[in-house]
Amino acid sequence: MSAETLVQLLYLVSTALFILSLRWMSDPETARKGVFSGVAAMTLAVAGTLAGVIATGGTHYWWILGAFALGAAVGYPLAQVPLTAVPQRTALSHAFGGLAAGLVGTAKFFLYFGQRNEAALAPFIVVALVAEVLLGFLTFTGSLLAAGKLQEVKWIPQRPVTYPLQNVSNLALFALALGLGVALVLHPLAPWAPWAFGGISVLSLAFGVLLIIPIGGADMPTVISILNAYAGLSAVAMGFVLNNKLLITAGALDGSSGLILSVIMCKAMNRSFFNVLFGAFGQAQTKAADDEQKVYKADTTESAAQIMEQASLVVIVPGYGMAVAQAQHKVRELYDLLKKRGVTVKFAIHPVAGRMPGHMNVLLAEAEIPYDDLVEMDEINGDMPQADVALIIGANDVVNPAARADKSSPIFGMPIIDADKARTVYAIKRSKNPGFAGIDNELYFLDKTFMLFGDAKAVVGELARKLAGEGGH
Amino acid sequence: MQTAHSEAAAAATGGGHGQLDFMGALFVFMLATFIGLMVIQRVSRLLHTPLMSLTNAISAIAVVGALIVSAGDGHPGYITALGLVAIFCSTTNIVSGFLITDRMLKMFKKQEKGAK
């Protein structure tokens, strides 16, 4: 058996294991098997590649080993971050993925150019190289910026940054990059080709920044998913350049995952891809200022605890505020105390609650809340009229009834959790300011709504204490 | 002679395993995308965050390309350096991606019957 055959066989098994890995993610019961299968697939891929490299006379093994060791040394602590920082970590890791693809593309181009290798710079390959570098570098800077926004790094603006002719100037730059790409495909060995290639790289790095600065925190779940898809597609492009089917397959799996998640996120916000990327959301919607006479009804945790104790169904709606306050463990205490009193407690999870797809589920799982009680929006909404209490913890836009009724609202048409249909609504809110989208929430002014102002962790903790205290009497 | 030489160079240095086959590559891409879409549609919504960190690790398959670039004999030093940085980036993703996915998945537990 030739070395080449061995390599391809290893790649074949690796591909199958990657597919199985994602297949096993369909159920929390089998999901961990998916991780093992992924690790096995990656190990085979690296082993196969090394076998191929050795057979064709490779070198630099010590350097390579060093790069592996350094990567592992940085990767290990990155896997130990608190779960509230998972969105940042994910964005950062998209950045690494994009950078790796972009660098390999750059290396390949200059290698072929230096060799005057006309066969290797066939039009198809150059197209793939340009795509790889464009997607790779764009994902790199875009994800870095997204990670910075999520980490709330001081000098990175949190609010969307917009300026006149933003989309026009972005499109002009994109056309320029496209023009350079076409020129490169037609004349890959021209003396100016390295400059054109460099120009594309610089423009791609700039695109990453330009695409992310106008995007606000509420859109982060969608943006992270789109960047995920880009990172996958850049791996596909690399596969085309290297004519490597394993790269193409694994990249396509990643790309389609990012695509599906983006579509789910967009649907959950009733927006299109185009709208997320080009229609800066959250631009000050200050028109609500004139009906400021609306008043919140605040309530004490004591009476809230009493009402919840007598309820038969309590639905908790968590949002980003719960993550910020790290309140999930206190929520678990509350959940336990209510359950002990025979109250049914369910969590209503909106697809875009938090800063990345599935963010709330992970936080609540960390607090050891059984996943059977985490209910998706579409399933819980039918039960909302039977709920005695809806307890909203740091969520805002995902329970705003304006999305159903008010055509002038920027979130009109977005599917929401029908918290307003519960008999009583308690909302824990840090301050009286409107939520991330900058929109007032009518829910807070309903007759049946009571506000509990304060830090989510402190308020939930107090609720739990009140419940526990009364049990002692 | 000239083309034969450069093709040999591409095979050795580029590690383009097998013959260049654009159409074959496109077919693989198309089929893999369909498989990906179908498999991922079935992923439980509970697990979307771990799914993303798992696919993060999977997209670090770029390590294959990075390895081929860095190990090539007779490449200029800067090419090898670019490849090594790419290996570093991909390994970071492989290690952190798989580890954090497993860490998260361990937390997902079902209702224990009869437990406290």
Task: Describe this structure as you would to a colleague.
- The complex is a heterodimer of chains A (473) and B (116).
- Chain A is α/β, with parallel strands linked by helices and 473 residues long.
- Chain A folds into two domains: 81-278, no CATH class; 290-472, Rossmann fold.
- Chain A is 59% helix and 7% strand.
- Chain A has helices spanning 3-23, 31-55, 61-78, 86-114, 123-151, 166-186, 193-212, 220-242, 245-269, 273-278, 301-310, 320-324, 328-340, 359-366, 377-380, 402-405, 456-472; strands at residues 313-318, 344-349, 374-376, 389-393, 424-429, 449-453.
- In chain A, α5 packs parallel to α7 and α13 runs parallel beside α17 (456-472).
- Chain A is elongated.
- With 116 residues, chain B is mainly alpha-helical.
- In chain B, α3 packs antiparallel against α5 and α4 runs antiparallel to α5 (77-107).
- Residues 1-18 of chain B have low confidence and may be disordered.
Q: What's the number of helices of chain A?
A: 17
Helix content of chain A: 55-70%
Mean of all residue-level pLDDT scores of chain A: 88
Structural class of chain A: alpha/beta
InterPro entries (chain B): NADP_transhyd_a_C
Protein name (chain B): proton-translocating NAD(P)(+) transhydrogenase
Catalytic activity (chain B): NAD(+) + NADPH + H(+)(in) = NADH + NADP(+) + H(+)(out)
Function (chain B): The transhydrogenation between NADH and NADP is coupled to respiration and ATP hydrolysis and functions as a proton pump across the membrane.
What tags apply to this protein structure?
heterodimer, A: 473 residues, alpha/beta, Rossmann fold, 2 domains, six-stranded parallel beta sheet, 17 helices, B: 116 residues, mainly alpha, 5 helices, 0% strand, cell membrane (chain B), membrane (chain B), cell inner membrane (chain B), transmembrane helix (chain B)
Write the layout of secondary structure elements.
The complex is a heterodimer of chains A (473) and B (116).
Chain A: H1 3-23, H2 31-55, H3 61-78, H4 86-114, H5 123-151, H6 166-186, H7 193-212, H8 220-242, H9 245-269, H10 273-278, H11 301-310, E1 313-318, H12 320-324, H13 328-340, E2 344-349, H14 359-366, E3 374-376, H15 377-380, E4 389-393, H16 402-405, E5 424-429, E6 449-453, H17 456-472
Parallel strand pairs in A: 1-2, 1-4, 2-3, 4-5, 5-6
Helix pairs in contact in A: 1-2, 1-9, 4-5, 4-7, 4-8, 5-6, 5-7, 5-8, 6-7, 8-9, 11-17, 13-17
Chain B: H1 2-14, H2 22-41, H3 48-59, H4 63-71, H5 77-107
Helix pairs in contact in B: 3-5, 4-5
